[in-house]
Every structure is written in C-alpha cells, then in structure tokens.
Amino acid sequence: MDIKELGIDKNVVTKEYVFSKQEIEIAERRVTNELNQKYTIEGFRRGRVPKSVFKTRFGKSFYEIFVFEKLIDNIYNSVKGENLLLVPEIAESTVNADEAKIVVYLHKKPEITIDYEKIKVKVTNKEQVLDNYVEFRLKTFQEENAILEPKDGEADYEDLVKVKVTILSNDTGKELIKEKEDEYVLYKDDERPIVTNVVGHKKGDIVEFDREFDVSEEGKKLSYHYKIEILEIYNRNLPEITDEFVKTTLSEMHLETVEALKNKLREEGEQIYESETKQSIREQILSLLPDATELDISEKTIDYAVRLIVANMKEENSFENFVKKYNNEEEALKELKEYYLHDLKKELALDKIAKENEIKKEVTDEELDSYAEILAPYWGISVERAKVLVKERADIRKEVENTIFVDKILDVIAEKVEKEVVDVDKDNKEGEENEKEQ
C-alpha cells in the first residue's frame, strides 16, 4: 500500500492510498471466503463457490462494495494512533480488479488554545451568606417551636391556618383532590393563590377560585377549580431565642448560650458554603469554557461531523422531529453545527487540561464512596446501598467516574480564573417553598 499526502487544511490531512495487484487479490480472497459463508448458489456445494461466480453475480458491487470494504479496513488499521477526531472520510475511490486508489480525509484533533482571562466566575459574599444562614436557622427554630393560639378573627399574614382542600378539573369535572386537610403559614412573600385567597377570611368560610396551568409549548392550558374550607386559624407566637431557650428547647444540641448556638450554626453554614461554592464555580467554568476556547479547525471537519450526526439521527428516526423545532432544515443544521462546536470545544479543552496536569480517569474506591454519600439522599436510599450501586452497576459507575474526572479538571481551572465576589440577592431567598399542584 503506497500512501501519498495530497494536502493539509488545518486539522484535515488528505491522503491517497494506492493498493498493489497483490493486495487487491488478497482482498478478493477474503471477500470470496466471507460470501461463501453467507450465500448458497445452486449448482455449487456450500462454501465452494468460485470467486468468478460471485464476480458475475454481484457485478461492479463485488469490487466497489465488498473489496472496497476490505481495503478500507487496511486504511483504518494504518491510521490507528494518529489522534483522529472522527472516522476517516472517503473523498474518492476507484476499485476494480486492476487498480485500487482511495483518497481519504483524515480529521485529526485540532490545535486548541484556552484564554483563562475570558473565564470570570462569581462567588457570593461569604460573610453575608453566613450571617443570612445563621439568621435563617434561628428563625427556623422559632417557627418550629411557635406557640399556637386559636384566633376568632380574620386570617392575617404570619397566622397558621388549617384548611380542607378540594380540587376539580374544569375541563372534565373530575375530582382530583377531595377534602384533603392541610395547613399553611400565611407568609407575606408567599404569592401562591391558595395562601393569598385565604387572607382576610374567617374560620368556617369557604374560599373558591380557578387556576390555569400551561401544559405544552403550544399553549394548551388546564383549568382547575379550588374549594378551600377554613377549619382553624391560629396566632403564632414565636419564642425569643435566649440562653434558656437554647438550654431547654434545644437541649439535644448540648449548648449553653445563644452565642454558642450562633457559632455552631456558623460552622455548619461554612461547610455548606464551601461545598456549594465549589460546585457553583465548577458549573460556571463548564458553562464559560467553550467561549474561552479557540479551535484551529477546518470547515470540512465541521460539515462532516454534522453529516454523521444527521445520519445517526435518521437511523434513529429522530431527525424529522428535530427539524420541526425550527423554521426549516437549514436552520436545524445550523443549530446542530453550533451545538457540535460548543460541545467539541468543551470536550477538547477538558482533555487538554487533563493531559497537561496528568489527571487520570481512574478513581479510587474512597472517591466512589464519597460521591455515593452525596448521591444517596437524592436517590432516597441509604448511603451503604448507594455505595454498592455506584461500584457494581457498570452504567452508574462509568457516569460517576466521569463526573469525578471532570470535577478534578474544573478544580484545576478554578485556580487560574478570576473570581468576583457579589452580594447576596435579597430577593432570591434560599429555602423558599415551591407550590406543587396536580
């Protein structure tokens, strides 16, 4: 096999592969053996059909498809280890009994540069976060130990109300929830209709209202009728946080003073802050990394990659539905191209940084156990069960190993980028409840 380099376009090397008569004959024999295993032709014993018969039966396809595939295998084997980004692309080919020439585009991984100055992450002011956390936790202790007094008047903000809830579908008349008892604290900043509509009403009142929910991108809505019967209303008297309150009501914490409580809460908040800030920085870097990355990549590679993606989508019967999301196929292909470049920049940047810092994909059992401890509460299972799943389920283990690997890379980048300290957004209160409706 003679190899001639015809040209270079950034990361694409064009090569011509010329096969000798002997190499073509070897490919012919391999094809004949394989066809004998697949086909039975009348008049010949199975496995004994001559090459000439197959050549007659398949015509040009014998060389242009079957022999061609064997020669391509030789090319693929010859380019292993050449740091290819995509499978070789066949540009031209001539294959017959007398000659075989195949021109191939080798799409190599492009040169990459990362400008860390373009990555600027934000971290919240630590002191403000800790102050707010301590304040929030103290408020929680008060809320949990509030003294309730029955109230005869109208429900007002900060009161607790016990209600009986019934919800019906306006579209079908079906009763979704029937006289379900629940309770709500009427916080002033809670804008849920089930809260705002109760304020100003008395025990025994029945409050009714309708709500609509968007359920599709086409704007389809579902309408529900709410019937809220107020069973009880309570004033909530919040206890003062004193040394006595700490020693008695919070006795399980084994503390003596409010100051000791605040210090403990601050330590607790600091651990949470460090963990969440680290994860926030990782997520920001991962989001900003493609924009800080430049690739010296040929348009041939981008076009080829998109064609491969489209071919795969068509094979999975998902391309038509993808195109429907856009005005036309041209826009859909443009979006695919942008997505591919964005994803490629991220992938190659992570790969480059991992190699430069000798970060390996292998993880230790200790690292897997630590990550399992994080996942356990999200999965709703015990830590021990999570550890077993992470180690024994191949799909889960692979995903966790990759996450740990990427996190190590992002932590290296975090040491190189600028961090801007920002004040806590008072309007975005952590722990605010989200209404869940059916």
TrEMBL record:
Residues 1-139 form the Trigger factor ribosome-binding bacterial domain. It catalyses: [protein]-peptidylproline (omega=180) = [protein]-peptidylproline (omega=0). InterPro entries: GreA/GreB_C_sf, Trig_fac, Trigger_fac_C, Trigger_fac_C_sf, Trigger_fac_ribosome-bd_bac, Trigger_fac_ribosome-bd_sf, Trigger_fact/SurA_dom_sf. It holds the Pfam family Trigger_N. Residues 257-415 form the Trigger factor C-terminal domain. It is found in: Cytoplasm. The keyword Isomerase applies. Its main location: cytoplasm. Keywords: Chaperone, Cytoplasm, Isomerase, Rotamase. Its EC number is 5.2.1.8. Belongs to the FKBP-type PPIase family. Tig subfamily. This is Trigger factor. It comes from Thermosipho ferrireducens.
